[in-house]
Design goal:
With 492 residues, the chain is of the alpha/beta class. The protein is built from 16 helices and 21 strands. It has two domains: 277 residues, Aldehyde Dehydrogenase, Chain A, domain 1, CATH 3.40.605.10; 192 residues, Aldehyde Dehydrogenase, Chain A, domain 2 (3-Layer(aba) Sandwich). The N and C termini lie far apart (64 Å). The chain binds adenosine-5'-diphosphate (ADP). The site of adenosine-5'-diphosphate has 17 residues, from α8 and α9. It comes from Aquibaculum arenosum.
Length: 492
């Protein structure tokens, strides 16, 4: 199939929300610029959503919800599966569009995201008949059962780092469960998700999903506060997560919050060095400029492997090609925005001021059109003092800090000494050490000798400041997008 040029697509999708099955501008007529972070070219103008637009989208979702929920679950499932099939057919175009608005390298990152999006829809579409209740042995004269019922209208607020995937993990289970949804896209990346919704619009009835572009306070907050929104599911920063939680408390509304992380990677002395180094490259997510909630931004290496590990990691990172995200040769694209770029550079300056040694790998793409782009060279810090903010705070950039340790107890204590608890990995050939790591590491997602990306069927979510509730998996659909109703039928 002929793929549409991503620049043209961004233009075509400019100035529009998708409400009640139709593309509409903001009621105010306002828009905002969206840029290509590799060149700072304006690629399009997104509709600037505000309360009036939120009201229209929620009204459409509310109007559509009863009929949607009244469909047999498997019918809803079939329609959501069909969305997945069509998204799959458009995945190259979606990958190019998301690369354009986020600066994520096409080959190493954006194509991976586009594939997971299609998977999430087909996975949840197939789970429709799992929306089952239970029968409860209570009294022989009474049939007691539980039913899974939809919540109603679900608000989904998403970030820019993997926008299509995080939208899919929210709206596919919400819709299969019989809810209708209103999405608020991230201001940096409004177009790829809008294109996904345009594809869904070929299949689903009007109002079942609606998508608005806009900023947090003007568009996200009114969605959280809207009296007809019965649940909000959010991925983003801890700070914004807490604002949303407070807004939800006013309405006693349930929320799912997927927040930040400072995920430790532990390399034991008996680890396979080569595998662990490859795991660090994928774990820090250098290819995405470290813009991942689960980025291995603290690496603890046993003293016996410490120096060899650092040398091998430097060599790997130096060999990576930073460049135009749309270029097939590129391994590493850009940071998403000026704000994030300045923030990441601030942490690198801080780490150096704290006395850390910074190895800056790869090389900047040079001049020409890319000279102004938000490229940051990957940084491997060593010799940082333990109280450096680079070791404790989430950076969301291509920066990791390597520290040495000698015993398992010591490293587990260090790894757990964090306000976050999202992900962790441990690299060892010893089964007992691996199991100790799995049991003792305070994180929602622990992996041994690997760094798998998030999968639709694996429950994902953090503890401590990393969030509330789980995303992906059957459990997420049942626990987070339905109410459980208990019914007692007295047969006497
Ligand atoms: P990031 O640092 O990744 O941009 P944010 O948490 O600020 O993280 O943003 C994630 C999403 O939350 C974006 O869609 C953003 O517009 C939205 N957002 C920001 N502030 C608010 C708010 N006060 N209420 C609702 N949504 C918000």
């Amino acid at each position: 199939m002929a793929e549409q040029d991503p620049f043209e697509l961004a233009q075509d999708l400019s100035g529009k929300h998708l409400i009640d099955g139709a593309f509409v501008p903001s009621q105010s007529g306002k828009t905002f610029d969206v840029i290509y972070p590799a060149t700072l070219e304006v690629i399009g103008k997104a509709a600037f959503g505000e309360k009036a637009d939120v009201d229209a989208a929620v009204a459409a979702a509310k109007k559509a919800q009863k009929a949607w929920a009244a469909l047999p679950a498997r019918e809803r499932g079939k329609l959501v599966t069909e969305c997945g099939r069509r998204i799959e057919a458009h995945k190259e175009e979606l990958a190019r569009l998301v690369a354009l608005e986020t600066g994520k390298a096409l080959r190493t990152e954006s194509r991976v995201e586009a594939s997971v999006v299609a998977d999430a829809f087909t996975f949840y579409g197939g789970l429709a008949s799992e929306l089952k209740g239970e029968s409860v042995p209570f009294n022989p004269d009474m049939l007691t059962v539980t039913l899974r019922e939809p919540i109603g209208v679900v608000g989904a607020i998403i970030p820019w780092n993997v926008p299509m995937m995080l939208m899919a993990f929210k709206i596919a289970p919400a819709m299969v469960a019989g809810n209708t949804v209103v999405v608020k896209s991230a201001e940096e990346a409004p177009f790829a998700v809008l294109r996904v919704c345009e594809i869904m619009n070929e299949v689903l009835p009007p109002g079942v999903f609606n998508i608005l572009s806009g900023f947090g306070p003007e568009c996200g907050a009114p969605l959280v506060e809207h009296p007809d929104v019965g649940k909000v599911t959010f991925t983003g920063s801890v700070e914004t997560g807490k604002i949303i939680y407070r807004g939800a408390a006013e309405k006693l509304m349930p929320v799912t919050l997927e927040l930040g992380g400072k995920s430790p990677m532990i390399v034991m002395g008996d680890a396979d060095l080569e595998r662990a180094v490859a795991g660090a490259v994928s774990g820090v997510r250098f290819t995405r400029q470290g813009q991942s909630c689960t980025a291995a931004s603290r690496i603890y290496v046993h003293e016996s492997l410490h120096d060899a590990f650092i040398e091998a990691l430097k060599a790997k990172v130096d060999a990576m090609v930073m460049g135009d995200p749309l270029d097939e040769k590129t391994d590493i694209g850009t940071i998403v925005s000026e704000q994030q770029y300045e923030r990441v550079l601030g942490y690198i300056t801080q780490g150096k001021a704290d006395g850390g040694t910074a190895h800056e790998g790869s090389s900047l793409p040079g001049d020409g059109k890319l000279a102004k782009g938000y490229f940051v060279r990957p940084v491997i810090f060593t010799d940082l003092p333990e109280d450096s903010r680079v070791i404790s705070e989430e950076i969301f950039g291509p920066v990791t800090a390597i520290q040495r340790f000698s015993t398992l107890d010591e490293v587990i204590d260090k790894a757990n000494d964090s306000e976050y608890g999202l992900a962790a990995t441990i690299w060892t050939r010893d089964l007992k050490t691996a199991m100790e790591g799995v049991r003792r590491l305070e994180a929602g997602f622990v992996q041994v000798n690997q760094n798998l990306v998030v999968q639709p069927n694996l429950s994902y979510g953090g503890i401590k400041q990393s969030g509330l509730g789980k995303e992906a998996s059957l459990e997420a659909m049942l626990e987070h997008f339905t109410h459980k109703k208990t019914a007692i039928i007295n047969m006497t």
